[in-house]
Amino acid sequence: KILIIGACGQIGTELTAKLREMHGTENVIASDINTRNLDLVNSGPFEIIDAKNYNAIKDCCKTYSIDTVYLMAALLSATGEKYPMEAWDLNMNSLFHVLNLAKESTIKKVYWPSSIAVFGPTTPRENTPQHTICEPTTVYGITKQVGERWCEYYHKKYGVDVRSLRYPGIISHKAMPGGGTTDYAVEIYHEAIKNESYECFLSEDTSLPMMFMEDAIKATIDLMEAPSEHLSIRSSYNLSAISFTPKEIYDSIKKNILNFKITYRPDFRQAIADSWPSSIDDSVARNDWNWQHRFDLDAMTSEMLKELKKKYNS
Ligand code: VAH
Questions:
Q1: Rounded to whole angstroms, what are the CA distances from 178 to 36, 44, 104, 175, 302?
Q2: CA 59 – ligand 1 centroid, Å
Q3: Cβ(155)–Cβ(102) under 8 Å?
Q4: Measured on CA atoms in the order 58, 61, 66, 69, is the torsion positive or negative?
Q5: How confident is the model at residue 106 (pLDDT cuts 50, 70, 90)?
Q6: What residue owns the CA closest to ligand 1's atom 8?
Q7: CB atoms within 10 A of CB 129
Q8: What is the mean pLDDT of the chain?
Q9: 3-state SS track over the chain
Q10: Does residue 36 surpass a pLDDT of 90?
Q11: Which GO molecular-function terms appear in the entry (predicted)?
């Protein structure tokens, strides 16, 4: 059976739905620190678990005979700068708990997300390679960089089958993201429909690697289903789909909402965005497990606007 820690989050919500569709609801246990997503809580097996609590995770794995864990709980880049020690505590200790349970062999396979936040201002910004300089300047990025090293260590030293992806910014309409620097690219769709105007917290020419949630979920499942012997990376795979600037996503939306207006008012998140690459080379993922993104910017925009219009007009 599968346990998802952080199931109420932006990615966790959709990962839970997809895994339940594939394996049956009763075989996928959702868990989070609280019950903020009642639809999810009421749609199948749900446990309240604090990802910092080793015994809570261990007991849940025992109760449900869990053999696969998706660890999706974390404090993201912007929140991590406000609460550095909390971000270190949650992001690192939750990973140690799951890796140690896997080492003790109660868990057979682990998924743990990394991020383009592992890269920093000294990393080559265009087509950032799989192996390159990583000097992250955010607490979140530091936790992801160190987490990658621990994943590779537990795989090499204890044979733990842990797999990871360096997610770009992820855009979705089912669950709101929380505390990310790339979250402007989600907010902008909501504001375009609600107010036909948006004040963007990044400057208009800030190019960042991004991905529609459907592609992120497909990449996660494809990686977890790939034969272990095909995987050459046990830190975390570069993953990419599209890169765009606030101006480009604005233009894409404006094709559908003709009166949409945008203003730019960069805040502390501009410095975080400026430390990250503008595009990623994910050829290793494409070679190892046939990764291929499907959504370009305009396809994502039409899907986002279609689904959000239903939500706001319902
Ligand atoms: C953040 N959405 O902005 C996350 C992600 C690549 C960015 O890690 O912090």
A1: 13, 24, 33, 9, 23
A2: 31
A3: no
A4: negative
A5: confident
A6: 115
A7: 15
A8: 97
A9: CEEEECCCCHHHHHHHHHHHHHHCHHHEEEEECCCCCHHHHCCCCEEECCCCCHHHHHHHHHHHCCCEEEECCCCCHHHHHHCHHHHHHHHHHHHHHHHHHHHCCCCCEEECCEEHHHCCCCCCCCCECCCCCCCCCCHHHHHHHHHHHHHHHHHHHHCCEEECEEECEEECCCCCCCCCCCCHHHHHHHHHHHCCEEEECCCCCCCEEEEEHHHHHHHHHHHHHCCHHHCCCCCCEECCCEEECHHHHHHHHHCCCCCCEEEECCCCHHHHHHCCCCCECCHHHHHHHCCCCCCCHHHHHHHHHHHHHHHHHC
A10: no
A11: L-threonine 3-dehydrogenase activity
Ligand 1: list residues with CB < 6 Å: 76-77, 115-117, 140, 168-169, 177, 180-182
End-to-end CA distance of the chain: 36
Output the CA 169–ligand 1 centroid distance in Å. Answer: 5
**Catalytic annotation, pick one of 70, 140, 154, 167:** 140
Give the pLDDT of residue 158. 97
- The CA distances from residue 116 to 27, 43, 215, in Å, are 31, 32, 16
The CA distance from 308 to 293, in Å, is 22
Which atom of ligand 1 lies at the shortest distance from residue 181's CA?
A: 3
> How far is ligand 1, taken at its centre, from the CA of residue 258, in Å?
29
Cα–ligand 1 centroid distance for 206 (angstroms): 14
In tens, the pLDDT along 235-273 reads 999 999 999 999 999 999 999 999 999 999 999 999 999
> In this structure, which residue's CA is closest to atom 7 in ligand 1?
169
Residue 127 pLDDT exceeds 80: yes
- Asked if 140 is an active-site residue, the reply is yes
Residue 265 confidence (pLDDT): 98
